[in-house]
Amino acid sequence: MEPKRVEVDGVVWWERNCPECGKIIRHTKGYNARKLSKAGSWCKPCRFSGNGNNFYGRKHSDKMKVEHSKRFSGKGNPMYGIGGMLGKAHSELTKKKMARTQTIWWRNRGANPPAFAKYRNQVDKVTRNQPIHLLENFDKRGVAGVRGAYHLDHITSVWYGFQNNILSEKIGHISNLRMIPWLENQKKWLYNEAK
Q1: Cβ neighbours for 46, distance < 8 A, ≥ 6 positions apart
Q2: pLDDT tens digits along 60-89
Q3: In 10 A of CB 37, how many CB atoms?
Q4: pLDDT per residue over 10-21, tens digit each?
Q5: Is 69 exposed, middle or buried (0-12, 13-18, 19+ CB in 10 A)?
């Protein structure tokens, strides 16, 4: 069934019925309402009831548990494809594969990528290998716009290091890193760009 557009006092939303229980589900965006309606998406209570999952809420033998575990481990795991990129400790083989991917990316970008982009990449590589969890306020690390969130900052900026030919190892070293509030970090960037 196609979602129905509803407008009250200038406020617009779309309504559709849950295919499982028939309750009305409201969406603020028509695209989402149409897409989820076409997919037959259930309402939140029905999704969390476990009715659609035959493994949920039933007693299973140890044999069944082992089979289920094997099916979703290794290459059977839906997250297998990207797990290597998200892990904290990469094997040497994974690091080589990642380096190969980066090399291909640089080649596709052009024979001579901008010098600053190369320098920035080298600094980032050094920074990623530093024990930043030892920095003060590391536990407050977060995204911009969130109150109390901190960002990783290079005390001597990457741009300054590039312009003054400072080694990328010095700029990315732990002694040149600190955690500062996200707004202060953005203001620092704006100030440097204005120069």
Answers
A1: 18, 20, 21, 52
A2: 788 887 887 777 666 656 555 555 445 556
A3: 18
A4: 888 999 999 989
A5: exposed
